[in-house]
Amino acid sequence: MLPGRQYRVEDILRIAWRRKWLIVLPFVVISTATVFVTKRLPNQYRSETVILVVPQKVPESYVRSTVSGHIEDRLQSLQQQILSRSRLERIIDDFNLFTAQRRVRPMEAIVEGMRAAIKVETVRGGDAFSVSYTGSDPLIVKAVTERLASLFIEENVRDREMLAIGTSDFLQTQLDDARKRLIEQEKRLEEYRLRYAGQLPSQAASNLQALQNGRMQLQALDDALARARDRQVTLERAVGDLLATETPTAAPVAATAPPPPAASGDPAALAGSTPAEQLLDARRRLAALESRLLPEHPDIARLKRQIAQLEPKVAADSAASAATTPSAAARPARDAAQVARERRIRDIRADLDAIGREIAARQNDQQRVRTEMALYQSRLDAAPIREAEMTELTRDYDTIQQIYRGLLAKREDSKVAANLEQRQVGEQFRVLDPARVPERPFSPDRMKLNLMGIAFGLVLGLASVAAIEYFDTSLKTEDDVRTVLSLPVIATIPLLTQTMGDVRVRARLRWSFTAGAAAIVIAIATIVWRFRG
Prior knowledge:
Blueprint: H1 9-18, H2 20-40, E1 45-54, H3 71-82, H4 85-95, H5 99-104, H6 107-117, E2 118-122, E3 128-135, H7 138-195, H8 204-245, H9 267-270, H10 275-290, H11 298-324, H12 336-422, E4 428-433, H13 446-471, H14 478-485, H15 500-532
Antiparallel strand pairs: 1-3, 1-4, 2-3
Helix pairs in contact: 2-13, 3-7, 4-6, 7-12, 8-10, 8-12, 10-11, 13-15
């Protein structure tokens, strides 16, 4: 190729004509070889089946399936299981596939080749998917495709059933654990209620009412005790009056009235009194102290010991007085008033004993009521602490109970869903378009391969001519001389032997070559268009 030379179409055609054999030979050789090779390529047939995803028959509003997710994700899982080596080896053995290859190639390579021949694609819309298999025998291709479709259907049913049962079993395990925790928490609550019975926040109102009732009961006991003591004082005063007006019969010197009873609690005044008067004064002081002090007070215990010591003395004096009294035969009959007075004294003393027992009972009731009030008050004081502890226990119990109820509802739903899958009324795969025996080969596309061979041969020839012309620097025409040497041409010698026949032949060859080049360009354009299509 000459530098600086601008080539026209006529120049290019002239070059092509001059190098025509470099274009024709690669074109013919490569095209012929391509046709020969494509004829010897084995035919590959493809069979395809379309599987429809049928939704469950029971509405989702009634029974919610435990199997969720897009069909693409589930197909990936099913494809991994069905295209595993164990499944494909079983299919290869059942249909006796790749007999010649198994003699020279390992099983891993054969399984990989079969896995590459299987294609699983979702159909537009996502409600169906296709399964196809490519092989050399049309009948076997159809049978293998049907086997793959049945495997997809069976595996889908098995996976859905196992997933539903597994979900139900998992929820049952979680439910048992939640039930165990709930029972343990209920036992803790029961033990806490038994341990702190009466101090619970729910019992505060009853404790407050019991405390109020105790106060009212204590007030009633105080009033009754005050009345009893008033009666006791009145009766003791009556006994004292009766004893003071009594005239002794044993000694004449004692005819005068006895001195009035000594002041209560005065040892000097009690020194000259009789044991009966001392006993009466001790009882009066004991009644006064019991109204103000507890039964365990030391003064009350001392007076009780003093009374216990005076009572035998008074009894002995009464016996001695009865012994020194003249007999009934020797003395005149006792005065009726004296007898009535003694009877009155006995009745009053009996009433005093009853009142003393009543006072003691009232005091015991007071002590009991005060003890009960202290117990209810302690329960009320402990109620805030128990309320905080109960709040923590009940919070955990409520949380576990909510978890248990939620798991129970989910477990029941999962049981219904598992029953749905076992009865095969859930989502299923159904063959929409069954596999058929292919009528024509799927590959190789001989037309496309032949066109590619022709194009390659033509491109190779043109590339060879272009390369030779690029490295060729010889001068062949007047334009070449004028371009390279930059000198004017004085004269040219024409081809003397050229005749009109030669001119016509050269014109026909030029037009033939132009038509061939146009046909090649059209063929190349056709190949490009088919590739794009």
